[in-house]
Structure formats: structure tokens, C-alpha cells
Amino acid sequence: MTLDLTGHFMIEYGSGEKFTLGLELPTDPRWINIAEKNIGDILVDHAYCEQKAASSCISLIMLYPEREKLVEILTPVVAEEWSHFERVLEELKKRGYSLGRQRKDEYVEALTKLTIKGGNRDQQLVERLLINALIEARSCERFKILWKNIPDEGLSKFYYELMVSEAVHYKNFLQLAKEYLPEEYVNKRWKEILKQEAGIIATLEVKGDRLH
Ligand SMILES: [Fe+2]
Ligand SMILES: [Fe+2]
User: DSSP class of residue 7?
Assistant: First the structure.
């Protein structure tokens, strides 16, 4: 894991592009050790994460159809997340696993509780966009760990590609949030959410069968 001087996570990929994810707390190093022994479970959990990512973008488009920029940016993301879901299914199949039932997603449940209830339509939208950005950022960090550490070459390459793709989504959600509320407000709220997320990560049990 490369950390920059401010303690924010650095993502660097092929093109040499670098940027920080902003996360406050790195994943517990024990996670990768147990995750690599449970790759079938990780893939099942991951498949559902992709499915939820697609459906979350569909919900946003259905709830905010009048927000042209949102519809324009998120429509291709739906297709991309669904293609990730298909690709995870292929990886499961290649390894003789099947798609098991969905596990309880304690991480996302805890994050959802962070949203400020009420407020106007734009405030509610920005809350949702920031939670989505956060899930993308944390997924990106986990994919980076999988890419760097799993011995299965094909899967390692797969996670590199997904890391790059989710990094773009992370930026999309943050950019959209700044379309609907002033940048200063969004940056302040984003910092608050990042702190709260670190608290959630610190208290959740480290489970090697979950992506988060
Ligand atoms: Fe995805
Ligand atoms: Fe994504």
C-alpha cells in the first residue's frame, strides 16, 4: 500500500495517473491473508457488490431524471457495473464456484446510517452521491490489495482492471456531488464522512469472506 504524506491512499495505474482516495484508515493487513484463502466467498460477495452498484445507479437515475448531468454520467456506469457482475460470474465459473446467496452487507448498512436525513432534494442527492463515492473508494482500495497480493495471476489482473474502473466511478460521484451543492460544502461533508467511515472500518470484524 502506498501512502502519501497526508496519509491518504494513493492509487497509481498504467497511464501514470495518480490520485488519492482520501480514505483515513487502511484495511487491516489480516484481511488479505484470510481473503486469499476464501477466494470463492470473496467472489460471491463481490458479485453482489457489483449488482448493488448497478442498481444504485439505476435508482439515482429513476429518482432524479431531471438532473441531466447525472443521467448522462450514470447511465454508462450502470452498464459497466453490470458487466463487472458478469465478469465476476465468469471468474466464479472458471474456478468451479457458483453464485451463492447474498451475505448481509454490514459495511454498507453502517454507511447508509451516516446519511443526514431530511434537507432538500439536492442535499439528499448529495448524501447519496457521497456514500456511493465512498463505497467506490473503499472497493478501489480492496481491489488494489487483491491485485498486489493474490497469487492467481488471472484474478490479480482482473482486480487491477476493476480498480481502475472503480477509481473513475469514485471521481464521477464526487464530481456530480459538486454539480448540485457548492464545492466548499461538499468537501467539508466528504471529510466528515471519511472520518466516520474510518470509525466503521475500525469496528467491523475482519472477515475474509467479504469484500468490505
Ligand atoms: Fe464495479
Ligand atoms: Fe463502481
Answer: S
32: left (phi over 0), alpha (psi -120 to 50) or beta: alpha
Smallest CA-to-CA distance from 133 within 23, 17, 24, 211 is with 23
Q: What is the mean pLDDT of residues 117-145?
A: 94
Which pLDDT belongs to residue 34? 83
CB atoms within 10 A of CB 88: 23
Q: For residue 19, list its beta bridge partners.
A: 11
Least distant ligand from the CA of 172? 2
pTM over 0.85: yes
Distance 21 CA to ligand 2 centre (A): 14
Ligand 2: centre distance to CA 166 (Å) = 4
Range 126-129, long-range pairs (CB < 8 A, 24+ positions): 126/177, 126/180, 126/181, 126/185, 126/186, 126/189, 128/60, 129/60, 129/173, 129/174, 129/176, 129/177, 129/180
Calculate how far, in angstroms, residue 91's C-alpha sits from the geometric centre of ligand 1: 14
Site of grid cell 480498480: 163
Residues around ligand 2, an ion, CB closer than 5 A: 53, 136, 166, 169
Q: Report which secondary-structure segment, H or E, holds 179.
A: helix 153-180
